[in-house]
Amino acid sequence: MSKVVVFDHPLIQHKLSIMRDKNTGTKEFRELLSEIAMLMVFEVTRDLETKEVEVETPITTCKCRMLSGKKLGIVPILRAGLGMVDGVINLVPAARVGHIGLYRDPKSLEPVEYYCKLPEDSVNRELLILDPMLATGGSASAAINFIKQRGCHHMRLVNLIAAPEGIARIQKDHPDVDIYVAALDDHLNDHGYIVPGLGDAGDRLFGTK
């Protein structure tokens, strides 16, 4: 079973509270999402492998630690996941960025991939899949499945807010993918929105509502 990590850092919780407020505007919402993504990935990457190196300082030489494991890749789920990319890139500027887009077929109601472009060496990278909301988990599960079909098997899911239903779906479909969230909310309403949530993250991010 994959692990679920809920971050309770005061800065993350403070910024998330402002994002939840219905009166928070698009500009501030966008800035806060980027900031929280950066704070979350700081914690998500805590277990990255390092190696000892020798560095010459202006004074002398010393033993230091540098990254040595798998390189990172970032895969936002379109469109709301785009709002998390800049925050992660600011922290890990060498990370490669892919994109995956899905839509729901109106007849079968199943997720359909309409776009997927990953870095050429994705199979050798630790991928962070980004999406602010994990509601039913259907889109995230499908995105992970499509990425796995391309030979990638080292990935983590990073969400701002999750519902228990979404967590259960990912753990059932992808028990090898750990989940990192800033908040685990109560439930989904009849329209599939997370309660209390923050509304439609994509609309609030891009000002389309």
TrEMBL record:
<keyword id="KW-0808">Transferase</keyword>
<keyword id="KW-0328">Glycosyltransferase</keyword>
<protein>
    <submittedName>
        <fullName>Uracil phosphoribosyltransferase</fullName>
        <ecNumber>2.4.2.9</ecNumber>
    </submittedName>
</protein>
